[in-house]
Amino acid sequence: MEARRYESVVIFNPRLTDAQIKEEIKKVETILKSNNANITGVDTWGKKEAAFSFDKQRFGYYVAFNYESSNHEAPNALQSVLRITDTVQKFQTHLIRTKTRKFKGNPKRFTQPRTDADDFEFGGDYD
Q: What is the residue-averaged pLDDT of the chain?
């Protein structure tokens, strides 16, 4: 099986201390490692204001986990643990695709190249 790349963004309770945040990050890392995921990066974005309030909190401590896994159940295992963790307010996991779609313009839209002269009408002396 081919390894897939994932990104999980977790919003922790802002009332946690720095030591408690580090413990929670280590817990998430052990969950991923126990499901044979290779952690490629952990980004701590810090305490930020959310777009909307949840659990009567306007702020949250954001952490992004980037990982690769050939075990496609690793994100599901992580999400099942995050759902029941009291210190987690919200979380979201995305599959990162390596293929990008190239833009192909509509060939019928512009059949002839346009010039600036097409926009003006000439009909007098402009000196």
A: 85
- Are the CB atoms for 48 and 3 separated by under 8 Å? no
- Order across the sheet with 37-54: list the strands: 37-54, 57-69, 4-12, 88-96
18 three-class SS: helix
Q: What is the DSSP letter of 17?
A: -
pTM for this prediction: 0.74
37 touches 100 (CB < 8 A): no
How does pLDDT run across 82-103, given as a tens digit for each residue? 999 999 999 999 999 877 666 6
The one-letter amino acid at 29 = E
C-alpha span between 13 and 109 (Å, rounded) = 51
DSSP string, 67-125: EEES-TTHHHHHHHHHHT-TTEEEEEEEEEPS--PPP---TTT-SS---GGGG----S-
